[in-house]
Amino acid sequence: MEKLKKRWGLTSNWQILAILIVFSINGSFAAWIAKPAMDFIQFPYESTNFWLYWPVRILLIFIIYQITLPIVGFLFGQFKFFWNFEKKMLRRFGFKKI
Predict the structure, then answer these.
(1) 21 contacts: CB under 8 Å, gap ≥ 6
(2) Domain of 67?
């Protein structure tokens, strides 16, 4: 626990627990939202090729995850951590000015 607190710049075990809960909830939420989103963009599972459906769905889950992570983090009082996490992630993807 101490290694995580030091690496992430946290001060309490509650913060670690909250961050892990946010990651868990947000991952499940992104996967749950992806199915109706796929239907909305007219990519239903039943009538779309397997090799097209899953890469599109995984990409959609990734996008939803990135958008909702700071929001869910805010609900748990950890917005600052997740906003910095998102900026770091986007810089790694090549977005320089964030």
Answers:
(1) 76
(2) 2-92
Is 27 within the bounds of a domain?
yes
Hey, what amino acid is at 47? S
Tokens (6 digits) for 95 = 């977005």
Determine the Cα–Cα distance for residues 57 and 60; give it in Å rounded to an integer: 5
Residue whose C-alpha is closest to residue 82's, from 92, 90, 96, 72 = 72
| Pick from 3, 9, 32: nearest CA to 78 | 9
Q: Helix, strand or coil for residue 9?
A: coil
pTM above 0.90, yes or no: no
Per residue in 68-89, pLDDT (tens digit) is: 999 999 999 999 999 999 998 8
Is 97 inside any structural domain? no
Q: Structure tokens of 1?
A: 């626990």
Q: Say how many domains are in the chain.
A: 1
